[in-house]
Amino acid sequence: MAHGGxxxxxxxxxxxxxxxxxLRELELEGPVLVMGDVRSEVPRELAAMGLDVAEWNRRAxxxxxxxxxxxxxxxxxxxxxxxxxxxxxxxxxHGAAGALKPGGTVLVYGAKDExxxxxxxxxxxxxxxxxxxxxxxxxxVLGGRLRAGLEGHRRTLEAWREVGPLEYGDFSGDxxxxxxxxxxxxxxxxxxxxxxxxxALPAKGRILDYGCGSGVVGAVVRHRYPxxxxxxxxxxxxxxxxxxxxxxxxxxxxxxxxPRAGDEAYDAIVTNPPxxxxxxxxxxxxxxxxxxxxxxxxxxxxxxxVAQRRIEVEGAFRRSFRRVEMRADGGGFRVWEGWxxx
Length: 342
Ligand SMILES: C[S@@+](CC[C@H](N)C(=O)[O-])C[C@H]1O[C@@H](n2cnc3c(N)ncnc32)[C@H](O)[C@@H]1O
Hints:
The longest helix is centred in the first third of the chain and has 14 residues, at 86-99. The chain is α/β, with parallel strands linked by helices. Helix 1 runs parallel beside helix 2 (41-48) and helix 8 runs parallel beside helix 9 (314-320). Helices cover 24% and strands 34% of the residues. The site of S-adenosylmethionine has 18 residues, from helix 6 and strand 10.
C-alpha cells in the first residue's frame, strides 16, 4: 500500500482521472489515440466530448488487444500513459509522432514517483511548447504539439531494435532487444541464479517459459535440451518480437497469466516470473502462479522459479506440490522447484 492506503493501481487511477478531469479545457481535435492506459476514464471522457477514440496497447494486460507499434492514424491528438522505462517513453513518443497529423497534440500523464517531473526532456525533441497541463493527486499531465520537420524520427519498431552479445556458460549469441523489455539485452541476476540452479528437465518434454521477456530462459533450456518442445509466453508484444528472433522455432504465446489448460499438459514451467504491475510490486502474483501452475502441469510435472528472497513462496509450493526443494539462495534471490502437483 502507498499514499494513504491506496492499493497497487493507485497511480493508474490517479493519473488517468487527473487527465480526464482536464480534457474539456484543452482544444483537442479528433480522432484521438489513447496509448497504454489500462483505465477507462480517458477514453470515456473523450467519447463523451464527441471525439472519435482509438486505443493502443503494447501489453495484453487483462486480455486487451495488443500490438507492438501504434496504428498509423492520422490522429489529431494522442494521450500517452507514461511508461516506466525512459527509453520506452521515447519509443512510444516516436510512435505517437508517426500517428499524428501535423501540429497534433500529445498529452503525457503519470505519477511523480514514476518520473513525470523529468519527462519533459524526452518530449522536447519531438514536441514544441512543452508544459504542464495539470497537477494533482501526486500526478502531472504534460502537453505539447508535434514539431514540424522532425529530424531523426524513428517511425518503426525496427528502428528501435538493438542487437548485442549475450553470453551464459557455453551459450552465446547475438541478442535482440527493444526498449522496455526486461533486462534489455543483459542477463538479470535473478535469471542468472535460476539458470545456474536449473534442475534436470524432461529432455523431450513440453516446457513453458512463463514471462519470457526476450527469451533468455527458453534459449538456455533449449541449448541444454535441444529436443524440448518449447513455448514462450509474455504479455508484452514487443518482448515477443525479440523472443521470436532470439529463440527461433519456439511457440510464441501472447497472454496475461498462465495459458488455459489444453489437451496436453506441460512437463515443466521454468520462470523468472513477473511481480510488478507498473511500479507496484505484488508478491501475490507469485503465490498465485504457484497455486495455478498445477492446473496446466502433467502428473509428474514441475514448476521451477526464481523469486526475491523476501517473498514467501515455500508455503504455496508445499500446498501445490508433493516434492519441493529450494535449489539456490544468493544475491537476494531464491530458486524453488516443485514436482508432482498435489
Ligand atoms: C521478471 S521478467 C523476466 C523476463 C525473462 N524471463 C528474463 O528472465 O529475462 C517478467 C516478464 O513477465 C512479463 N509479464 C508481466 N506480467 C505478466 C503476465 N501477467 N502474464 C505474462 N507475462 C507477464 C513481463 O513483460 C516480463 O517480460
